[in-house]
């Protein structure tokens, strides 16, 4: 490692520089004072390389013009005489200011005259009376990344008498993208940098530095030391400090101003005028802020962070940056343009608040992207959807009659309403894509008819109703098991000739007692659910694999393959993440998933009685935040533009790698009956897995994209992406060693974990079941 000789001139200079690193107060010398004259002489004669700047004559000239504007019309020689007379002994006129950190000595007007010239061009946007009022005000700024721009703008306008600045951090090279300073200041304290720059603008301004930043120990002193602050400007990153500072500021009736440097977000809280105003407009009222300082993980802090920042109101690019945080970027982005803009806005609002020209409180947006914008050359096409009315009982009756399905089975048993409801309750607990519950049951003349309700089955990832057919197959399996437990023998048949509307017809008669296997599986129906947790990985035994495989092969043509090797599971995770991102980037798929399928509150889920409630997804706070950000289409478009979104892969990879195995169910062809039978087989396996203590998480998005890719004009994506999908499908087939004559129909994770505490809601019986006329 390179080291300097301790006797070298460069080493001596470096050591001297280090001694000056914390200096930010200039030395002000008045040569009419004997002591100051001695110091001045020492600095001039004993400081190597000192730079001296003496423009006092020009400053006096400008002073005279400020005091008497018409003096500019005076003859030049008369003006020179007045200047010479005023200057007298020019060395003693005014003050000499020594800046030790830059080794500069500057001759300036003394404070009163300096103030006249410095503020002359503020008139009359700021009057003399207002300027005098501002000179009595105390402002505190917490955080100097954004706060530096605020502080310097306030200093240039002379918008305060005392400025307290607090930041514990040192300048890094990456900070210079938004902090106006030189590279020579890297690793200097931000407080020192800002105080120095203010001193170089105006050496008479009073700046007090809190180099350790704001802490619990010094917060009260920051707010009240040497007199209470007249305004607190919050630009710090610490959320507990934000809240604690406001809590005390509210008690002290100190107004608070905060600028967010994204979308020009402005928060004003006039605690001086509204002592009972809730902090941060009540956005954190539901949170226990006393707990925040004890929280360890980012995930635990997310509810607090989102409440303060208002994640859903961030700009699309900031949302995209939040998604990429700790994936392709390491910290929140900020731009010099936004920070400088924010500094100007904050200084302007500060002046108005301190002069009591602005009394409003609230959160405001000065979003230039919305205020000044071109019409896009290509507008995002609105996704047009045709909403179908749910299948009505009358339509069902007409269909049954028209297609000669109304004849009664004289040998069949006429089920009671309680028996029917027992079967329907079991059937409707079956899984369905997006929890769309596409089934519609109708009982007439001793026959139970099963229909596909197309109004619920129009999803982008339900091409040709394949996902709905599989879901209906699962409902059939539940119905058959429930019938066996009720000692009902079932005679049933699929009706593919009537697809997609009419799926199957069932008739019942007295049967034998159920087998132990049927009782066991039927008992799992209320326990079975989709589980998305990522537990500690546990092995699956060969015995369990054999049992589950046997359950699958009870359906003719069905095959089940498990992949247990971690390397192969990781490859499957990568395949799944590719198609998950594709689902985000295709507008129709994005609309389907995040607008039609997702339910963002429990209340919304209860009202709709379908869809996936975000509270049922076993997500961490961080991942729930990520899901919420996905709703912004502009953010998604930007992510695609920068090839982003890799952060979303993290969750899916984590889920896959925590799995005991990944399973794939295949059938010999892709006919309607095959998809229905795949659902029957999948549900039987799922119930069996539940009986063994396993959890199941379907991951069918890749398979559906492969299916859509095979259908001509089904995917509105580039040929390059289609080719990539084709290659991805080949990779999946190779991993599972799938034969060419088999169609992939159901892929899932299997793992050991505790049950999910929240379950998707099911539709009420009146929406899915009816009894027709005899």
UniProtKB/TrEMBL annotation:
- Organism superkingdom: Bacteria
Question: Under the GO molecular function aspect, what terms does this record hold?
Answer: oxidoreductase activity; tRNA threonylcarbamoyladenosine dehydratase; ubiquitin-like modifier activating enzyme activity
Instruction: Please list the residue ranges annotated as the THIF-type NAD/FAD binding fold domain.
Output: 125-278
The cross-references to InterPro entries, in alphabetical order and at most eight, read:
Nitroreductase-like (IPR000415), ThiF/MoeB/HesA (IPR045886), ThiF_NAD_FAD-bd (IPR000594), Ubiquitin-activating_enz (IPR035985)
Which residue ranges does UniProt annotate as crossing the membrane?
Answer: none
Write down the Pfam families for this protein, in alphabetical order.
Answer: ThiF (PF00899)
Name its GO BP terms in alphabetical order: cyclic threonylcarbamoyladenosine biosynthetic process
Q: Which NCBIfam families match?
A: PRK07877.1
- What protein name applies here? ThiF family protein
Origin species, per record, is Pedobacter xixiisoli
């Amino acid at each position: 490692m390179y080291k300097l000789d301790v006797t070298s001139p460069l080493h001596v200079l470096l050591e001297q520089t280090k001694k000056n690193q914390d200096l930010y107060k200039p030395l002000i010398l008045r040569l009419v004072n004997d002591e100051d004259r001695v110091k001045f002489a020492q600095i001039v004669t004993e400081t190597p390389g000192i730079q001296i700047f003496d423009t006092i004559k020009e400053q006096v000239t400008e002073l005279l013009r400020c005091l008497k504007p018409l003096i500019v019309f005076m003859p030049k020689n008369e003006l020179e005489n007045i200047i010479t007379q005023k200057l007298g002994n020019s060395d003693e006129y005014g003050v000499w200011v020594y800046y030790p950190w830059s080794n500069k000595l500057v001759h300036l007007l003394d404070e009163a005259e300096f103030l006249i010239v410095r503020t002359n061009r503020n008139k009359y946007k700021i009057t003399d009376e207002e300027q005098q009022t501002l000179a009595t005000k105390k402002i505190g700024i917490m955080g100097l990344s954004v706060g530096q721009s605020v502080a310097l703008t306030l200093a240039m306008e002379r918008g305060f008498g005392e400025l307290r600045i607090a930041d514990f951090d040192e300048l890094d090279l990456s900070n210079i993208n938004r902090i106006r300073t030189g590279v020579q200041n890297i690793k200097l304290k931000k407080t020192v940098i800002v105080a120095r720059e203010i001193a170089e603008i105006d050496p008479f301004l009073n700046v007090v530095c809190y180099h350790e930043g704001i802490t619990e120990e010094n917060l009260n002193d920051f707010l009240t030391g040497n007199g209470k602050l007249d305004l607190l400007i919050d630009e710090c990153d610490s959320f507990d400090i934000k809240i604690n500072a406001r809590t005390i500021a509210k008690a002290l009736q100190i107004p608070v101003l905060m600028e967010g440097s994204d979308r020009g977000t402005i928060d004003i809280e006039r605690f001086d005028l509204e002592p009972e105003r809730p902090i941060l407009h009540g956005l954190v009222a539901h949170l226990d802020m006393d707990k925040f300082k004890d929280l360890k993980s980012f995930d635990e802090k997310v509810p607090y962070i989102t409440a303060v920042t208002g994640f859903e109101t961030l700009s699309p690019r900031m949302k995209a940056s939040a998604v990429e945080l700790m994936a392709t970027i390491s910290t929140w982005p900020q731009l010099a343009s936004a920070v400088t803009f924010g500094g100007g806005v904050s200084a302007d609002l500060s002046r108005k608040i301190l002069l009591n020209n602005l009394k409003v409180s609230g959160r405001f947006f000065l979003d230039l992207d919305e205020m000044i914008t071109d019409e896009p050359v290509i507008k995002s096409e609105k996704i047009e959807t045709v909403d179908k009315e749910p299948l009505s009982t009358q339509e069902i009756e007409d269909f049954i009659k028209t297609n000669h399905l109304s004849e009664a089975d004289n040998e069949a048993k006429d089920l009671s309403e309680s028996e029917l409801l027992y079967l329907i309750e079991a059937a409707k607990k079956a899984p369905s894509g997006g929890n769309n519950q596409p089934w519609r049951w109708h009982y007439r003349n001793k026959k139970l008819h099963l229909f596909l309700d197309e109004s619920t089955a129009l999803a982008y990832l339900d091409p040709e109703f394949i996902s709905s057919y599989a879901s209906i197959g699962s409902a059939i399996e539940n119905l058959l098991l429930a019938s066996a437990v009720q000692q009902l023998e079932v005679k049933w048949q699929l009706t593919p000739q009537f697809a997609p509307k009419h799926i199957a017809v069932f008739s019942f008669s007295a049967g034998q007692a159920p087998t132990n296997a049927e009782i066991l599986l039927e008992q799992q129906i209320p326990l079975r659910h989709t589980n998305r947790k990522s537990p500690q990985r546990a092995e699956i035994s060969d015995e369990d694999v054999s049992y589950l495989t046997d359950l699958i092969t009870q359906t003719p043509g069905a095959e089940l393959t498990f992949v247990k090797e971690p390397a192969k599971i990781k490859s499957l995770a990568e395949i799944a993440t590719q198609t998950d991102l594709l689902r985000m980037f295709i507008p129709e798929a994005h609309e389907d998933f995040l607008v039609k399928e997702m339910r963002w509150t429990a209340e919304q889920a209860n009202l709709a009685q379908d869809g996936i409630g975000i509270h049922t997804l076993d997500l961490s706070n961080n991942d729930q935040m990520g899901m919420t950000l996905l709703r912004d289409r502009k953010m998604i478009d930007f992510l695609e533009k920068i090839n982003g979104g890799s952060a979303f892969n993290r969750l899916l990879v984590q889920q896959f790698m925590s799995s005991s195995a990944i399973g794939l169910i295949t059938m010999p062809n892709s006919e309607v009956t095959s998809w229905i039978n795949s659902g029957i087989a999948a549900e039987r396996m799922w119930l069996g897995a539940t009986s063994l203590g396993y959890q199941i998480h379907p991951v069918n998005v890749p398979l559906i994209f492969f299916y859509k890719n095979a259908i001509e004009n089904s995917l509105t994506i580039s040929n390059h992406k289609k080719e990539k999908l084709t290659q991805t499908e080949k990779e999946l087939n190779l991993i599972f060693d799938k034969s060419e004559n088999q169609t992939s129909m159901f892929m899932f994770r299997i793992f050991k974990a505790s049950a999910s505490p929240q379950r998707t809601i099911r539709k009420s019986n009146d929406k899915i079941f009816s009894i027709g006329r005899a």
